[in-house]
Amino acid sequence: MSRGGLDQNFNGIKTKQLTVQKESSPILFKDLINHIVENYISNKKDLETFIEEDTIRPGILVLINDTDWELEGKEDYELENGDLITFTSTLHGG
Amino acid sequence: MSRGGLDQNFNGIKTKQLTVQKESSPILFKDLINHIVENYISNKKDLETFIEEDTIRPGILVLINDTDWELEGKEDYELENGDLITFTSTLHGG
Amino acid sequence: AANRESSFSLEEYRRYGRQMTVPEVGISGQVMLKKSKILVVGAGGLGCPALLYLTGAGVGKIGIVDNDVVDTSNLHRQVLHTSENVGMLKCDSAKKYLNSLNPHVEIVTFPKRLSNDNIFNVFLSDKWDLILDCTDAPLTRYLINDAAVICGLTIVSASGVRADGQLAILNFQNFGPCYRCFYPKPPPPNSVLSCQDGGVIGPAIGVMGVLMASEAIKVICGSYTRENFKPFLNLYSAYPQQSLRTFKMRSKVPNCQVCSIDNDKRIITRSTIESNELNYSEWCGKVSYDVL
Amino acid sequence: AANRESSFSLEEYRRYGRQMTVPEVGISGQVMLKKSKILVVGAGGLGCPALLYLTGAGVGKIGIVDNDVVDTSNLHRQVLHTSENVGMLKCDSAKKYLNSLNPHVEIVTFPKRLSNDNIFNVFLSDKWDLILDCTDAPLTRYLINDAAVICGLTIVSASGVRADGQLAILNFQNFGPCYRCFYPKPPPPNSVLSCQDGGVIGPAIGVMGVLMASEAIKVICGSYTRENFKPFLNLYSAYPQQSLRTFKMRSKVPNCQVCSIDNDKRIITRSTIESNELNYSEWCGKVSYDVL
Ligand SMILES: [Zn+2]
Ligand SMILES: [Zn+2]
């Protein structure tokens, strides 16, 4: 699910299978964001690194399967079963 | 469709979209082999490199999507629309 | 200089023959390589392998920017330097080896740390065809990106930490997206994203440097054109299985602060940089900083 | 030798510190690297980068097998050799640089071409933990595979031509498939698959060598176990977009002529090799040859 620095936010978990439930379909990307914030981010500082103005911080790349979420409608993307979501930030080493 | 030396057999074509037609379904891998032999292999020497005893030569690896065809039933694998088939042989450089 | 003429000596034919017979390079590509000038910023974990393969490939002129000296802790991954060269400037250590690898390549060094004050001098010191960003400090990436966009230069950019890496081609022919299009905002200072020292496995960062050399060859030889270039990001991971994934990325962002087509949106300019209005301060160890 | 003890000097802590902080290696992995002995066959396009990163990483002992001398036409991709070393044995040229990169690593050389007569001497010359097959002649790959299986050695094997490469781990702990499981039959002589000289782009073969070093580190540090190891084949391609695909491969083939669990099926043995019953003759330039 996450890679490149960001896995620190999630206790070092790199790939995780999530089940997001909601009363009415479709399930949108913004529902996934809420689900992650509520269930996987434990402290406030990590929250600030990940979220800004109720969406993913602009410094973080969100990739839906093999495509930048900017090309997929961002928060309004309709999640499909089996979608692979990758979060990545700039890496700082060289 | 092909990579690593074998593309020489197909006039340097590396990836090609094929439409295999047959009167009755399912279309099996062996139908694809016949289709390739009939339509894409121009001379006898190339045929010997590719085919032996009516199937793919044992020195050639056949990969169906991300899996060795040995794990997928070989000639009897039922082709699905959009399957990516890769042929590769041992490469000889280092 | 004589070594950037378009004809080859017999020795050069021998040296590059195996590479010229590959259709994607060809003799015409070899000529383009010989005529090209590439500026490599950073002679560390990424720069070492990139420099080795670019020098081997016969790039005409290579500039190396690095003000750091070789330290023992570098040597597990910065394989162009040796134990005997500990304490020497990395750009000098690199130049010495590269000259003996391929005397046909002109190597020039810039033993300085890029800053608001000197980056345009360095980037405009010659007609560079391409910048390789092999640096290890995120804010330097913004500085390099901004100056390259303003100078109209394409960047091959990579980075890595632990066992992972990223690679992208930025500002391709002033037409592809830039670093700020991808990352408009640096992570907050002292966050887990910025200051950790995660360590790094030698061949994991090494592979990124070699991939950069391949991309540089592809850019110089004209494999990418405005017609076929699609913005992308590669993610490499060494574990559990080595993988290199390719992501289709956004185009140039219309309101990007440095590369926007719209003049009014482009608030980062040479003068805002050189006047120090824009402060690319140190990434770590400061509670606040001021970067656009 | 003293340099394979499990304690580290302060200099070694400094040298490997950045690598030891990566959890996948750790201090225990660094100890395993120091205690390990790796035999690298071929100091060419694959061997050069693999040797650089394995030496940097602090493998205890490295053997280099190569009877070839450095030629100008090698230098675009065999970046561990220099123009000054043209004419020198590749294993000597490599050893000289590697000693100065990391004096803690013991480098031994075997300036010979592996053959039916000498391969067991070389493979049994020490307690090697791993073989890297960095050779460029397909029939040598069969010879190395057969001897490694018979000696119970795991192989990290890669190859490449033009802009493409392959990588696999073979005979993993005498449990994974071997080269003959994948390729039971070599292509017919003089076919397009065997004799063409396709040329090669430096960083395309270079990347394969660096990937081999990563796999070697993973094998030595115990990242792969009998429980988690899944047979795989990596295919790298530099064009149009750099890609590294991973394919899930067959397990050990029951009737493999060299690695079968069934004694009766294993018709390739040390004695069939040493008696020259099995003739791994030259790949090209012969109309017929006799290999199982
Ligand atoms: Zn931009
Ligand atoms: Zn076998």
UniProtKB/TrEMBL annotation, chains A, B:
Organism: Pachysolen tannophilus NRRL Y-2460
Keyword DNA-binding tagged: no
Any single Gene Ontology cellular-component annotation: cytosol
Entry keyword set: Cytoplasm, Isopeptide bond, tRNA processing, Ubl conjugation pathway
Localization, UniProt: Cytoplasm
Modified residues (1-thioglycine): G94
Protein family membership: Belongs to the URM1 family.
Pathway: tRNA modification; 5-methoxycarbonylmethyl-2-thiouridine-tRNA biosynthesis
InterPro entries, sorted: Beta-grasp_dom_sf, Mopterin_synth/thiamin_S_b, Urm1
Cross-link for Glycyl lysine isopeptide (Gly-Lys) (interchain with K-? in acceptor proteins), residue positions: G94
Name by which UniProt lists this protein: Ubiquitin-related modifier 1
